[in-house]
Write a structure and sequence with these properties.
203 residues; 12 helices; mainly alpha; 4% strand; 61% helix
């Protein structure tokens, strides 16, 4: 039995579809600053997006959070798509505040691709970027948690490479205190540990 509606399928150019799929594949070429555990290589943004989606799903289930799982997974999967054009911006970079401009333009380009079947791609991306829903709040917590976790398990390599300070890390994660207190309390203890290990500059 065919999965497709023949009348609809006859109007869709598979070349356009596959072109869009290859556009998405380009996210694998965007390296982040975090190192993959057990390796000496950098994580790419596609790997991070998968990890984020899985982590959000698991945490939402484990803590029985009142969130829409479909919405949560969608915003997790699209949250870094703008980096295909803009590249990744380091959390502690001075230019981070302007990153959304190029990323938004990249999302608009992908939205306009003829082979794109996600009609509300712009809307989903904007939700994770500027929204205040419970799903977005959880996404932002876990998006900060994962690179933090990778640093802890790679002897603080990204932190030491970039001379990151304890106060920088504490400041970047301060918002989690209100959104997810148990994760925040755990991170506070880990920041102290990382500082004691010399992975973070005590400043």
């Amino acid at each position: 039995m065919s999965l497709t509606n023949p009348k609809l399928a006859s109007n869709i150019d598979i070349d356009n579809v596959t072109h869009f799929l290859l556009e998405l594949d380009a996210l694998k070429r965007v390296n982040r600053r975090s190192y993959v555990t057990g390796t000496t290589r950098l994580e790419n943004s596609a790997e991070h997006s998968w990890h984020l989606a899985m982590a959000c799903w698991s945490i939402a289930e484990l803590f029985d959070l009142d969130v829409n799982h479909e919405k949560l997974l969608k915003i997790a999967l699209v949250h870094d798509l703008g980096e295909i054009d803009a590249g990744d911006t380091f959390l502690y970079a001075d230019t981070r505040g302007d990153a959304h401009v190029e990323e938004r333009a990249g999302i608009a380009r992908l939205q306009a691709e003829r082979g794109n079947g996600i009609s509300n791609l712009n809307e989903i991306w904007e939700e994770q970027e500027t929204g205040s829903s419970k799903e977005t709040q959880l996404l932002k917590v876990v998006d900060r948690l994962l690179p933090f976790l990778l640093n802890l398990n790679t002897n603080g390599k990204t932190w030491t490479d970039s001379n990151v300070t304890r106060s920088q890390v504490a400041g970047a994660h301060a918002f989690i205190k209100d959104s997810f207190p148990s994760i925040y309390d755990w991170q506070v203890r880990q920041i102290e540990f990382a500082t004691a290990q010399g992975w973070l500059i005590d400043a």
